[in-house]
Amino acid sequence: MPSYEYEALDGTGRTRRGVVAADTERQARAELRRRRLTPVALDAPRAKAAAGLRSGRTKRLSANDLVLVTRQLSVLIGAATPLEEALNAVALQGDKDHVRAILLSVRERVREGWRFADAMKEHARSFPALYRAAVSAGETSGDLAGVLDRLATMLEKNRAVRNAALSALIYPAALALVACGVVAALLTQVVPRIVENFDTFGAELPWITQAVVGASDFLSAYGIYVLGAAALGAVGYWRAMKVPDLKLRIDRFYLGAPIIGGLLKALDGARFARTLATLFSGGAPLIDSLDGARRTVGNAHVRQRLDLSIGQVREGASLAAALKRANVLPPMMVHMVAAGERAGEVPRLLDKAADQLEQEFETATGVALRLLEPAIIVAMGGVVMTIVLAILLPILRLNALASG
Questions:
Q1: Is beta strand 15-21 parallel, antiparallel or unpaired with respect to 38-43?
Q2: Structure pTM?
Q3: Which one, of 147, 151, 148, 171, lies nearest residue 159 by Cα?
Q4: What is the pLDDT of residues 68-114, one digit of tens each?
Q5: What pLDDT, in 10s, does the model give residues 294-324?
Q6: What DSSP state is assigned to residue 6?
Q7: What span, in angstroms and rounded, lies between the C-alpha atoms of 402 and 232?
């Protein structure tokens, strides 16, 4: 049923704002009068938003939208606000039509008696299965506010780690792009014009000059094909990562690579630990929590090994022992899980392990990228120096011949 935002006056003259469900604007006004409210304004576009939801044209919630909505709901529900009113308040607070439409649609289902997690299932693109599973566990345990708070924290930390890595990569990527552009410009524009002058003298060119001239000729003649091959290689890699067997082999190779393998272990370990702590502390069964946490891991080889660990836990093995046999997670995390099992505080120690792993990932990433920047500069300087030498050596040789 479409929803209309309203502004109305109550019996005391105070302004009230909210949302009323009705098929038409006339029915909405009648419903407001039934509530002893005098309608001042109705926002009909909410009906259009509902139509957009039914047709599937409405955009999904972005990662930032989901974090904000989750945090606001956790605060309101934690303050003893009924779920329906909390959804209404967060919807009215938002300034994006598709966010408001989605939340109002969920609110209507909640008003009809649906569970919150089931209502969100109609918008699976906006609320992932893992998110809905955590909410369902929170509803079952009666701690929905706490689960939403932990979900918001988990989403915020995951976003922070991802944004930190992306932000750190921006400068090296831009530097590498500029370096490649400068070298390509030198080889295709500068070198050919200077070499033309050398040809008029008919003197034999030094080997370094011949090598640079060869590279210049190749890039001028086949540069477009090199770019095309690189583009095809990127597309081929992307397609290969969609094939399960190929992705498994590539991910296994990455995991065994120096430096990169350790970073990937720390990142996936932090995601796994944070998600497992969120789900398990929210009241979800351990097996379901493990399965949900496993799905957040990006490396296919790690996921495969964790599948075996879940099977061992299902057969009665301890969580720490099963994770240790998997041999794909940082040892520190496994030790923290073992300590948590002994103390009966697995979620708390998992959160601590996730904090530690995230800090290690950020530190290692920062160090690696700080080393990468001067490496790119040195490499670019070496290439430019080679080109300059290739140009200067023939000039110096011609000057020597002329003076002799």
A1: unpaired
A2: 0.67
A3: 151
A4: 999 999 999 888 888 888 888 888 777 777 888 888 888 888 888 88
A5: 888 888 998 899 999 999 998 888 889 998 8
A6: E
A7: 50
User: Which residues, 6 or more positions from 161, have their beta carbon under 8 angstroms from its beta carbon?
Assistant: 267, 270, 358, 361, 362
Number of alpha helices (DSSP H) and beta strands (DSSP E) in the chain: 17, 3
- Cβ contacts of 374 within 8 Å, gap of 6 or more: none
User: Is residue 19 within 8 Å of residue 107, measured between CB atoms?
Assistant: yes
Distance of CA 256 to the CA centre of its chain: 23
Cβ-Cβ contacts under 8 Å for 314 (sequence gap 6 or more): 287
List strand residue ranges (DSSP E) for 10-145, in order: 15-21, 38-43
Amino acid 48: pLDDT: 47
Helix (H) or strand (E) segment spanning residue 133 = helix 129-141
Phi and psi, residue 4, nearest 5°: -125, 130
Share of the chain above pLDDT 70, in %: 90
Closest residue by Cα to residue 296 from 322, 268, 319: 268
Q: Cα separation of 84 and 278, whole Å?
A: 24
String of DSSP letters for 233-300: HHHHHHHHTTSHHHHHHHHHHHHHSTTHHHHHHHHHHHHHHHHHHHHHHTT--HHHHHHHHHTT---H
Task: Kindly state the helix (H) or strand (E) to which residue 3 belongs, with its residue range.
Answer: strand 3-9
Bridge partners of 19?
5
Q: What is the pLDDT of residues 362-376, one digit of tens each?
A: 788 778 777 887 888
Whether the Cβ atoms of residue 313 and residue 293 lie closer than 8 Å to each other = no
Residue 5, beta-bridge partner list: 19, 43
Give the SS3 label for residue 5: strand
* Tokens matching residue 61: 């919630």
Which residue reads 């099977």 in tokens?
Answer: 311
Q: Give 101-105's long-range contacts (Cβ < 8 A, gap of 24+).
A: 101/46, 101/49, 101/50, 101/52, 101/53, 101/58, 102/53, 102/58, 102/60, 102/61, 102/126, 103/69, 104/3, 104/19, 104/46, 104/49, 104/50, 105/3, 105/50, 105/53
Q: Residue 371: in which H helix or E strand, if any?
A: helix 346-403
Mean pLDDT of the chain: 81
According to DSSP H, which parts of 79-128 are helical? 83-93, 97-111, 116-121
- Encoded tokens for 197: 């002058």
Q: What's the CA gap between 14 and 100, in Å, rounded?
A: 24
